[in-house]
Amino acid sequence: MSDESQELGITESKSHKPGDWYAEVVQKAGLADYAPMGGFIVTKPRGYALWEGIQDALDSEFKATGVDNVYFPMFIPESFLEREKDIVEGFDPEVAWVTHGGHDELEERLAVRPTSESIIAPFMADWTRSHRDLPLRLNQWCSVVRWEATETKPFFRTKEFMWQEGHTAHASDESAWEEVWTRLGQYENLYEDVLAIPVLRGKKPEHDKFPGADTTTTVEALMPDGKSVQGATSHNLGQSFAEAFDITFADEDEDERTAYTTSWGLSWRAIGALIMTHSDDQGLVLPPTIAPTQVVIVPIWQEDTKDDVLEYSADIADDLEAAGFSVELDDRDERNPGFKFNEHELNGVPLRLEIGPYEVEDEEVTLVHRPDNEESVEDRDEIVDAVDEHLDEVFDKLYDAAETNLEENVREAYSPEEILGTIGKHGGYVKTSWCGDEACEEAIKEKIAAEIVMQPLEDEGGTTAGEVPEPDHDECGVCGDPADEIAYFAKSY
Amino acid sequence: MSDESQELGITESKSHKPGDWYAEVVQKAGLADYAPMGGFIVTKPRGYALWEGIQDALDSEFKATGVDNVYFPMFIPESFLEREKDIVEGFDPEVAWVTHGGHDELEERLAVRPTSESIIAPFMADWTRSHRDLPLRLNQWCSVVRWEATETKPFFRTKEFMWQEGHTAHASDESAWEEVWTRLGQYENLYEDVLAIPVLRGKKPEHDKFPGADTTTTVEALMPDGKSVQGATSHNLGQSFAEAFDITFADEDEDERTAYTTSWGLSWRAIGALIMTHSDDQGLVLPPTIAPTQVVIVPIWQEDTKDDVLEYSADIADDLEAAGFSVELDDRDERNPGFKFNEHELNGVPLRLEIGPYEVEDEEVTLVHRPDNEESVEDRDEIVDAVDEHLDEVFDKLYDAAETNLEENVREAYSPEEILGTIGKHGGYVKTSWCGDEACEEAIKEKIAAEIVMQPLEDEGGTTAGEVPEPDHDECGVCGDPADEIAYFAKSY
After folding, report:
1. Which residue of A162, A206, A345, B130 is 20 to 30 Å from A452, comparing CA positions?
2. Which SUPFAM superfamilies match (chains A, B) (predicted)?
3. Strand B260-267's sheet: what is its strand order?
4. What tens digit of pLDDT does each residue of A114-166 get?
């Protein structure tokens, strides 16, 4: 390999130094760069394309289920933030404040939105008069800012991050619950069907809910390094925001009633989970469902075969494009095939078509899967169907590997030593019985930085909260007090 | 009409009080509301849908012509803004400053981006090594903030506004010019083909260029009230940003050279121009090319005909949806047809289908155009083709009216009295000869608030700047000095 292709390659190892490896993949696959201000990143074309893929997939689901997109101001007056006490307590320490406009000091400081409940709720109040106006379902795609002083990790920990935030109002608690589960289900589908990442659904423990929420539901994804990622959350806010912001409506009998609200969000952390789950020491790996380029064709020629090989390759590219695949024909003169193979592997193109003079002569095509380099030869005439099948195979390989990782890494433990030992040795989730006291989480967290990432729910998905099932052991796995809940401990991103 | 439908209607008149009328249409058609902080608006579902329509149309054109979407941080360190002197002078008076993160004062103030050249250019420098990296074409869809102390006018004058900003780097001045014209042409197409608004192309006078630009090109649209709207701008930045931020590249001979950059943007002001151009005293009017709902079906029934009418209407809705039209079947029980007619007129649905028992019996459909209520009857069997044709007719009506307004309102004048008199009496554009001195613009501006909104160009569209054609008169229309340029005066938004 030339020096240039060494520079191209990933030098860190996913299994030995996952943090450094992750940072290297993000930069070398052209997903993001670090901005000059700590905590901020620049999202480059290939990284932004992933976000656009996520947006397209989710946005069409939202719209098909009654959600309208809107845009609220990026600033929130301080007095608005203060109207819901949990919100101000929850976010005040991490708000970026605008204090000056031009050369003048503002009369009231403006928060750069850390989340938009406080600016959206007053308008929901205004727009909600009658039960006929409900449910009211709004969503916005935007960025938010949370001034956390932690090390920057692109897509996982940044002071500004992209997300969507949905905000809805309902006439009943049942309708609000239906909303919460609809959105959580859509997040689950995004992870499983588009990102090829199986997730666990559950709720956050009481002490870890969204500020002001009655219940926070979550989808959690297990990374290969044994840590959990909170993939997206969907909150039943009960009536706390409706009461703080006077969201009321006239019911069928013209009686004034207080609404129920929800909010739900998915951030570009989904991109982080995507990278972390599938990629390897050769670089980015993407399921074909989200890859901006699904198929790359690398023609391999000598001077005397060049015209034939390129013509044959271009015809195949045309056929695949006409069939709706996203295809790149890499006919660069200045790079040799080996360099190109490495580069497209680094960038995570799911399927490579290699076409040399033998393929032209035999009217065949050689197909190579990312990530495992499995090679097949298919007939030229059946290339469209073959590509379709091979892309499905690539997806299945990725999903299956992630599913195996998840299935093999949920373990039970019923004493502090066992919990600590299991997480310390294997990572993953440790299922235990829990008394419900935050102190028991703290006891574990202090020793091994693992926390309760979720509690499973039974009978969820309808118009009620669902219930945390009874644990097999009736003593708390940490303190030994009576326990009637199940909790999943894990280290998390 | 009921009280409720009076509340629904527009009470101001477009011809007598265009400003009040505009504000009323924006609010009553559900496009936007005023935010609690002066200068900010909340973009409601029907308003945001217009922005999404514009995004979809432009974004696909950008992508088809080599542009990649990216996302840069919303904050720019003060020291970065200061690196290009024209930018800092141009924007400093209207920057919103973040001074605190959480409870701590920041070491360096951060500007909320008023435009992103200063944060994008350093990365362009980093990403540009060789001539092979050029042209580099980046775009982002985002909002920006400019702290101007003027009266809020939704989509026209707001402190935060949505836009797209394109930023490119090139190996030559010719390549930069080609870029400038490509983007201006795409803006022109958006206005003319999607928004049904004819525009004039030209350049801004030297003293009104974008800070730091060599040339600012513009598309200008004439509103029915005689004022011009700057529809979008495309700037040739020459080498000033490349020099300030060291955007250099190795050419074919490995010599280091300085790049040429451009930037170009279109904001939600396009929505303002859209509303202002076509709407009327009944409310919003939208061309079918941008209308979120293109066709509304209003069934008209008595109790004994209800089932037949609704079934017939639903079948037609299905046929139209299957053909790709965006259709709403308004089968609300609690509203009468007259109320529905008014509401859909207010909301700007281009085509209304009225279906009563007679239509069912005769296997026909009655179609009504927005804005002129022209009525036709078409056969049920040919409804898909008929709707297609009628939507085209609606588009043509709107475009033709706007084109007539433009054609009839470009007048020539060659003395200050004549310029002032013509604009005072008719509004519109006044074409005159100009010596190039800003003082001549000031002389007119002081008296009648009209300015030079553009200068026409000859031979533009290629790889050069184009030239301002020779005027018919060789004396400046304002001061009488020798003049070799043409200028268009107009009042503007």
Report:
1. A162
2. C-terminal domain of ProRS, Class II aaRS ABD-related, Class II aaRS and biotin synthetases
3. B68-69, B136-145, B160-170, B260-267, B228-236, B215-222, B200-203
4. 999 999 999 999 999 999 999 999 999 999 999 988 889 999 999 999 999 99
